[in-house]
Amino acid sequence: MPRLSLLNFEEGSCVPGHQPNLCFNTAMNLQDTRNLIAFHYWARNRMLGALEPLTPEQFTRELGGSFGSVRNTVVHTLSAECIWLSRWKGENPGRMLTPENFPDLTTVRSAWLDQEKSLRAFFAPLDDAGIQQVIRYKTLAGVDSASPLWQMLQHVVNHATYHRGQVTTLLRRLDAAPPQSTDLIAYYRENPAGL
To answer: Full-prediction pTM beyond 0.70?
Structure first.
């Protein structure tokens, strides 16, 4: 059996405020970015598809957990994505979306499809250098921060993955069917060439 070894990364330049031993030249390239965006919306569509059989009462029912209901959890995920895209565009968003403005799945889906168009349009003209750019922004608490764009995109996708897991748990509490697998490897199996 072949023996695996750890990769040796050379230290690279770091974003100010990061510990140097955590900064390596392991940045994503443009194709990685496109694959991650495609995966993100593929998984989102599977999650939203699993929500279609829910009644409006089930969609908004208080079930506990981080955000209380399926609707609130889904709107939180959409809201975070909207906030990050605003930051990338140099805007300073003030707050999260209000779940009550999304009374049903149709309103969430419509807003998220619009958000997807905006995010894809933002990334479309970028090249490898563009996704390496460090973007400065303020957190919702008003703290100045900066990160490379590719790291923030990874965060958006990872954040959504976490909350899709919560939605799956909430669906099970409702005795509803969970989404089909939203694992990254399932995406690659269905899309072997990536995009």
So the answer is: yes
